Prior knowledge:
Helix content: 25-40%
Amino acid sequence: MKQANTMRRSWLRLALVVALTVVLTLTVATTADARGKLGAVRGATAQYHRVENAIADGYELGYNGIITGCIAHPTDGAMGYHYFRADLIDDPAVDPLQPEGLLYEQRPNGKLRLVAVEWVVPGPVPPDPTLDPPTVLGEDMHVLNPALGWYIHHAWVWKYNPSGIYSDWNPRVDCPEPEAPPGD
């Protein structure tokens, strides 16, 4: 009987070790895959550290006269200034290496610093909860502003975000006070 209990405990320990190994392997593989995809996004957007390059490629502050100021949340931080390519927003396809939006924060010297990217897919207004959301980088997009109806997804690939790399708001990004147009 004692030998059977010892044998059972040994099998349980072995099963536990195998299960933990599988979970850790999947976690490391998923993390490495995500890092690789985000690295590709960084490579594709590195040229836009100079906002002039973004403008030359068709990005402009805001979209059809909206979202032209620095976007902030009263308690969660900010997103910054959004430079969008209208042609990419108007096309419902999502290309991880060609984000619809580039997010910039204004530095104390007035110059802009690239901090994040944003993918945008227009959806119905009001949003239809029965529809599956679009995805990018294996992540579901979501509607932050139902009045706008855009499915969005952020990736803070150029500035650390303690709220998470895919969070909408970054507590380390501030908007200038009073609201001032961005410098270059």
